[in-house]
Amino acid sequence: MILSFAELLNQNQPSYDYCVVGTGPAGTTLALALSGDSGKRVLLVEGGREDFDDQSQELYTGSSSGREYADLDATRLRQLGGSSNHWSGYCLPLSDHDYDRDELDGIDPWPISSDQIRRYSRQASDILELPVFGRDSDKSILPGSDGLFRVAFGGSSRVNFGEKYKDKIGSSKNIDLVLGANLVELFPAPETGRIVSAELASLDGRLRIRVSAEVFSICLGGIENPRMLLNSNSVIENGLGNERDLVGRYFADHLHLEFGWYVAFDPDRISGLSNGKFIEPVPLLLENGSLLNFGWEAEPAFPHNVADHIVADFKEIACASSIFRDLTRLTGRDIFCRRIKRPTVGRLRLVAECMPDFESRVSLGTQLDRFGKRKVDLHWKIHEADRHTYNHAAVSIAQFFIRNNLGRIKVEPWVLDLSMDWPGRTTHELYGHHHIGTTKMGSSPSNGVVDMSCRVFGHDNLFVCGSSTFPRGGYANPTYTIVELALYLADEIKRLQ
Ligand SMILES: Cc1cc2nc3c(=O)[nH]c(=O)nc-3n(C[C@H](O)[C@H](O)[C@H](O)COP(=O)(O)OP(=O)(O)OC[C@H]3O[C@@H](n4cnc5c(N)ncnc54)[C@H](O)[C@@H]3O)c2cc1C
Predict the structure, then answer these.
(1) Range of the domain at 113
(2) What is the pTM of this model?
(3) CB of 89 closer than 6 A to ligand 1?
(4) Dist CA 259 CA 67 (whole Å)
(5) Cross-strand partners of 43
(6) In this structure, are 33 and 176 located in the same domain?
(7) Do residues 105 and 239 share a domain?
(8) Is 162 in the pocket of ligand 1 (CB under 6 A)?
(9) What whole-number distance in Å separates Cα of residue 34 and Cα of residue 331?
(10) Nearest C-alpha to atom 50 of ligand 1 is from which residue?
(11) 409 and 443 assigned to the same domain
(12) Could you tell which of 53, 87, 156, 429 is best to mutate to test the pocket of ligand 1, judged by most ligand atoms within 8 Å of the CB?
């Protein structure tokens, strides 16, 4: 059933088994999975309305104090279906290595195994209307594969969670969906830490109500999840789950940058390196170079018969770079003077994992929203491990082209010269609007905000769902994993009840 705020207000002390807040991919998936638990009643709370609405979107404004980032009210959508209303839909699961790797200094691994999440891949793919994806080193797919790179298959989902599931939720006997209801604060019992009620406000802030539930789950996205925990501070001064000052820490996105050009000797051999696939290093290459995970793609920029002068210019620029001299020495091949027949030129794009950095964080800013709660401040920081990864990734991709006689690449100077600034957002994409790591999952309260069941340490009936719980984000777009994790969480909540 779909309720207005006034209808919720008419209920005498509303009380539910499960209260799920947020209707993006995380909240919608979780609420539907919980509603299958027979006889249990779910309150699904959405702050925005069915369509885009300035009054709701304004609540997403805040300040940025670190590395240049998207405006905070442009990097997510506050309405039914959340950011799936404007996402690009590209989906790729994290690799096993993203979950299970533990040798990289300074990074806590996922405390759960890839198998625990993979169990939900088939269901996640059904929800996103995609096949189940895999990874492959098959030489027929990857030209000249030498065992150091493999293909990661992904695909684009067209699912908008609001549009797809509104009617199903509306006709569900077990779910009450209330629109225009904004979670303002969660109240714990001082003695036990259990959440006893949640305060909701209408969009104009004039109507307020407290609801109670056996279990509360917040699915507000990677920036609002920590903000909500920090702003729920009437009973516990530092906020919920924040005894060790970890809430909001380790904010990460994915670095998305065009890092150079390629010239292909045979365009047919390289055509398989684009079109929805990423080429990723095998774990050995990552471990040997102490690299964060990354994926790259080659995007043809010109038709096959590119004008001679473009090739000549390209060769001139390529020859100026010292990296090519080094590569000539390392590979023992003349990489400049090869005759290029029917070349294809294109851009190389690299998407990389970011090092989780304690100083990269979401915290409370000084401005107040219309409910009297502090708005968010985002301080995004790039770690030196991120630059190291970009630099080494570019070199290994250049070597891959040479070893397999695919062509040659030219790398942008800022990738090779670690003292140069990276480009600003006017010329490059920079980030993916993926908000990761701010309430990260850990094996204990000393290294996580939530436990292996996505439950906030110290608060038995409070759960967080979404990419804010990822201890490591790999380089894959996060939503496929968010949906898998929401299905996992539903089972964990039922198991723990
Ligand atoms: C331009 C763009 C392109 C993207 N492309 C991709 C892509 O190709 N692939 C991919 O995997 N990801 C992509 N993403 C990211 C993707 O949209 C997110 O990963 C995904 O939407 C996160 O789902 P979520 O449910 O955790 O959060 P959200 O979708 O952000 O949902 C949060 C929900 O909480 C509600 N809410 C917030 N605060 C409150 C409150 N106080 N009270 C009540 N309700 C509240 C919001 O209205 C919203 O419904 C893209 C994002 C953007 C912006």
Answers:
(1) 2-132+156-252+434-496
(2) 0.92
(3) yes
(4) 19
(5) 19, 176
(6) yes
(7) yes
(8) no
(9) 57
(10) 87
(11) no
(12) 87
Q: How far is the CA of 300 from the centre of ligand 1 (A)?
A: 31
Contact 318, 326 (CB under 8 A): no
The stretches in the chain having pLDDT less than 70 are 103, 105, 138-141, 143-145, 272-276, 302-343, 425-429
Query: What Rg, from alpha-carbon coordinates, does the chain have?
Result: 24
Same domain for 291 and 161, yes or no, is no
Share the mean pLDDT of the chain.
89
Atom of ligand 1 nearest to the CA of 434: 15
Q: What is the pLDDT at residue 275?
A: 66
Question: What count of other Cβ atoms lies within 10 Å of the Cβ of residue 40?
Answer: 17
298 lines ligand 1 (CB under 6 A): no
pLDDT value, residue 327: 61
Q: What is the pLDDT of residues 335-346, one digit of tens each?
A: 544 444 455 788
DSSP 8-state class, residue 436: B
Q: Whose CA is nearest to atom 41 of ligand 1?
A: 183
Residue 75 alpha carbon, nearest atom of ligand 1 = 53
308 within some domain = yes
Number of domains forming the structure of the chain: 2
158 token code pair: 């067209």
Q: Are 354 and 293 contacting, i.e. CB atoms less than 8 angstroms apart?
A: no
Counting ligand 1 atoms within 8 A of each CB, the residue from 479, 480, 484, 489 with the most, and so the one to mutate, is 479
Pairing of strands 255-264, 344-352: antiparallel
Domain match, 120 and 267 both: no
Question: What is the four-CA torsion angle of 487, 491, 496, 497, rounded to 10 degrees?
Answer: 100
- Token representation of residue 201: 């406000």
Dihedral sign for Cα 368, 373, 374, 375, please. Answer: negative
Q: Are 397 and 280 in contact (CB under 8 A)?
A: no
